From TrEMBL:
Name of the molecule in the record: Lipopolysaccharide kinase
Domain of life per record: Bacteria
Species lineage: Bacteria, Pseudomonadati, Bacteroidota, Flavobacteriia, Flavobacteriales
Short name of one Pfam family: Kdo
């Protein structure tokens, strides 16, 4: 399928990295991609990019509520995501492990996207934009900080932004949790309070 119908993950990653860089979105610099195939089609593919020495990734902000400058990082990350959306980039794998963060100077951060093979380039309405935050596994506090920044940039009220971002985040978390419960064979129990 990947040889004859669809581009390989490696080729998509390379091309998407070039598009991101053209939009001044940071990602490890793309060097090359390699595709190996036989008469049946693609067998293996590899994407090669420049190594980035990063300080931490987005997961640290989830697991360490007292992470230094957490509020400022989340606000800057919301502005970074807004820039993605303004450039019509719907990063489908916008999840905690796919953003590398570098501290540049006092309370200023650069964000690098990795694992680039799943993106759509399309105009996104307000619902689409808030839906794009869902995989980040945000707490209420994180949603609060990010909503304040995003609402100002997008000219929506804080309440509208907070409510919709939280709604999509919670729906995604519930879906993942219920899948884990189904796999474990346990029944979901709800508190009566």
């Amino acid at each position: 399928m990947y040889k004859y119908i669809r581009k390989s993950k490696a080729k998509r990653s390379f091309e998407y990295a070039e598009k991101l860089i053209a939009c001044q979105i940071l990602t490890p610099f793309p060097i090359a991609y390699i595709e190996n195939s036989n008469f049946l089609g693609l067998t293996t593919s590899y994407y090669i990019s420049k190594h980035v020495n990063y300080d931490f990734d987005f997961r640290d902000l989830i697991h360490k509520p007292l992470f230094p400058n957490r509020k400022e990082i989340l606000q800057q990350f919301a502005a970074f995501t807004f820039k993605l959306h303004e450039n019509n980039i719907n990063f489908l794998d916008h999840s905690p492990g796919n953003t590398l963060i570098i501290e540049k100077e006092e309370k200023q951060y650069d964000f690098y996207l990795i694992d680039l093979n799943r993106m759509h380039f399309e105009v996104m309405d307000f619902n689409d934009r808030m839906h794009n935050f869902r995989r980040l596994w945000l707490s209420r506090t994180m949603v609060k900080y990010m909503s304040k920044t995003y609402s100002k940039l997008y000219n929506k009220t804080y309440d509208e932004t907070y409510t919709l971002m939280l709604k999509h985040s919670r729906a995604f978390q519930k879906k993942v949790d219920s899948k884990k419960l189904r796999r474990s064979g346990r029944k979901m129990r709800f508190k009566s309070e």
